[in-house]
Design a protein that fits this description.
With about 90 residues, the chain is mainly alpha-helical. It has a two-stranded antiparallel sheet with strand order 1-2.
């Protein structure tokens, strides 16, 4: 009998995450008894749906940069500072 996880198609990604965000997700995971990956997926899915509807703060956070790969970045320092202040 195949394990349940073998039946699901899974993809792993590597992303750079600020330590304050990682710690906040880890704490939420522990408090709720939910895997960290599911919390990341929920927040990403909700965020994408908001952006597709023209909602969310992403539009106000885009800043131009000089990079060979990207033309913009997101300015989220204020949000990360709020997470750090909670520690």
């Amino acid at each position: 009998m195949a394990k349940k996880k073998d039946k699901r198609e899974r993809s792993r990604i590597n992303i750079d995450v600020d330590p304050a965000l990682k710690d906040a997700i880890r704490e939420l995971s522990y408090e709720l008894g939910i895997p960290e990956s599911q919390i990341y997926q929920l927040f990403a899915a909700e965020g994408i749906l908001d952006v597709q509807k023209g909602k969310g703060s992403i539009w106000n956070r885009i800043r131009p940069i000089k990079s060979p790969k990207f033309r913009n970045k997101l300015d989220i320092d204020d949000l990360l500072d709020m997470l750090r202040d909670q520690e």
